Each structure stands twice: as structure tokens, then as C-alpha cells.
Amino acid sequence: AAGVIQSPRHLIKEKRETATLKCYPIPRHDTVYWYQQGPGQDPQFLISFYEKMQSDKGSIPDRFSAQQFSDYHSELNMSSLELGDSALYFCASSPDRIRRDTQYFGPGTRLTVL
Amino acid sequence: AQTVTQSQPEMSVQEAETVTLSCTYDTSESDYYLFWYKQPPSRQMILVIRQEAYKQQNATENRFSVNFQKAAKSFSLKISDSQLGDAAMYFCAYRITIQGAQKLVFGQGTRLTINP
Question: In the A/B pair of chains, how many CB contacts fall below 8 A?
């Protein structure tokens, strides 16, 4: 079965640079979620989209922005990167409004800020 | 605010034996979903099992089962016949629904070691 695809899998950036993370949900899933997992921590919710509109926002810095496109893929844009942004970033997707109770996670993008 | 607590940072079990991981949560909602996710060394987040709060029957998936005690707000995971491949970090998660939007709140995780 198709899974959530995230790219790139690994990303190394310098402080103050910009990064873009991409997420391709499972086919026919219309809701996308982004989570950040710091070293030794549990995942923290950042933002979610349903039908290309932002549906909820968590502890996401103003330096970060995200959007969902017409093909339902999503991108997380991160600017003015800081050392503390180094983390594993997960994208998850869930199916239609009626069955969207379970979130399926992608493999994650490991971002390292030097 | 909804919170999820896993009081066991680490657990270990002998291969082929049974182990139970604890999770408690706090909520004022009456209908909600609870999940256990597994995160092996690859760091992939893998869904293990889910429980709908309105269902009294405990969820079961092969060797994995839960003990859901709604009144006590407890949601423990039992792994039977433990296998080496079960070694991972296990996260308990609660699904919050706010104005139709949903997100997961995770516990701190329990690192499970399987001893051969």
C-alpha cells in the first residue's frame, strides 16, 4: 500500500538559511499534518491542512509557513533557521472527513542546522 | 487542556514474554480516539493500535491489545509473545478535535528493550 512520502529525507543547512520540506500524502487523503520531534522528545504538532486550507495551528514559529496545493501535497517553508530548529519533521495524512480519525506518518525529514 | 502521560520512561522484557506499557490521559471530551504508535531506531512512526472511546470493547491487533479504562482515563498497551523486532520507543497519543480540526497530543514515550 502507498505511504506518505517526504522529501528530502535528510537536510543540512546553515544558520539563517531557508529550508523547504515536502510531503506527499497517501492517495485520496485530503488532510495533512506537520509535526516536529526534537532529540529525545515526543512529536509536537505544528500545523494542519484540510482541502488546501489551514485547519489548525500549533506551536509553529512565525519564521515557518506551510501550504497545501491542489494535488494535496504540502510544503513546510522554514526561514532564518536557528540551531534549535534541528529536529525530525514528520508529515502525516488522514483520509476523508468521515474516516479521518487515524493519521499515517511519513518517514520524516531530518533537518540539521549548523 | 488535554494531556497524555506515560510514567515509564523505559521498560524491558524477555523475548517471548508479555509486557504492559502504561498511559493515562486527561480530557473533558466524551468521544475521542486514542492511539499507540511505535518508533523503531529508523525513527519511522508506525501505528500499532487505536481505540475509539465510545467502544467498550478493547482493541486488539494480533499480539497487541489495549486495556482501555475510560472512567480511570487509562489506556495501556499489552504486547504478548514479545519479539526482538518489538524493540522501539512507544508513544501513546490522544486525538484532539477543535472546531473540526484534529491533531495528536503525544505522551513522553516509553523505550522498550527486548532481551534475547
Answer: 63
